[in-house]
Specification:
19% strand; alpha/beta; globular
Length: 221
C-alpha cells in the first residue's frame, strides 16, 4: 500500500477553506485532517465543532480525519456529526475510560484511532489493539503547528510499526508533527501509512497545491 495523505486544515488559508478543500478532493487526496482542541488538554483552540461538521457538505471523495485533543472527547461527537467514513483519533492521555470512548466512536460507524503524545510509552497501546483501526503517533507535542520534531520520534514510529505487525497487522499507523519534505520519506521507511501534512510541506507556500500534493505522494509512496 502506498502512503496516504491527510493535509491539516489548521494550516490552510482560513479565508479560502472551501476552495482549498475542493482542490484537495479533486487531486485525489484521501483525508483532510481536522484538529479540535479544548484549551484544557492542550493550551490552544483551533477548528470548532461547527466547522468540522460543515466540512462534510463540501467533500466528495475525501474523508474526514478528526483529531480530538480534548478531555472527555465523546461530548463533541454529536456536535461534529461523526459518522461512517470518518477517522476519529482520541488521546490516550485525555480519556479516563478509553475503552468506552473507542466504543462510542465505533457506534457512530467511524474508525477509532488512539493518539499518543511524545512522552507516552508505546506499551500503553497493547490493551486497545483489538478495538481500534489505527494509531496516531504525535512527533511533536500536541497543540501547535510549526514545531520541530521531537527527538526519538523515528524510533517511536518503528516501535509502533513493530507492535502493529506483531499483534494487529490490519491497523494503520498515522504520523502527525513536522511531516516535512526532508523527513516524510524517513517516516515512511519507519512504517508510517498516513501522513498529516502541514506548514512544513503541503502548506509551506513554496509551490501550488497541486505540485505540493504530487511531490508529497512521490516521497511517501
Amino acid at each position: 500500500m502506498n502512503g496516504l495523505l491527510s493535509p491539516s486544515l489548521m494550516c490552510a488559508d482560513m479565508l479560502n477553506l472551501e476552495s482549498e478543500l475542493k482542490t484537495l478532493d479533486n487531486l485525489g487526496v484521501e483525508y483532510i485532517h481536522l484538529d479540535f482542541m479544548d484549551n484544557k488538554f492542550v493550551p490552544n483552540i483551533t477548528l470548532d465543532t461547527n466547522l468540522i461538521k460543515s466540512v462534510k457538505s463540501v467533500l466528495k471523495d475525501m474523508k474526514r480525519d478528526i483529531h480530538i485533543m480534548a478531555f472527555e472527547p465523546q461530548q463533541y461527537f454529536d456536535k461534529m456529526e461523526i459518522c461512517e467514513g470518518d477517522i476519529v483519533s482520541v488521546h490516550y492521555e485525555a480519556c479516563e475510560d478509553l475503552h468506552s470512548v473507542i466504543g462510542a466512536i465505533r457506534d457512530k460507524g467511524a474508525s477509532p484511532f488512539v493518539a499518543i503524545s511524545p512522552d507516552t510509552s508505546v506499551d500503553v497501546l497493547e490493551d486497545y489493539l483489538a478495538e481500534i483501526d489505527g494509531v496516531l503517533v504525535m512527533t511533536v507535542y500536541p497543540g501547535f503547528a510549526g514545531q520541530p520534531i521531537v527527538e526519538g520520534s523515528f524510533e517511536k514510529i518503528q516501535a509502533v510499526r513493530k507492535l502493529i505487525d506483531e499483534k494487529a497487522p490490519e491497523l494503520l499507523l498515522e504520523v502527525d508533527g513536522h511531516v516535512s519534505w526532508d523527513l516524510c520519506s524517513k517516516m515512511r521507511e519507519c512504517g508510517a501509512d498516513i501522513f498529516v501534512a502541514g506548514s512544513s510541506s503541503v502548506y509551506s507556500g513554496e509551490d501550488t497545491m497541486e505540485n505540493s500534493v504530487n511531490r508529497m505522494y512521490e516521497l511517501i509512496k
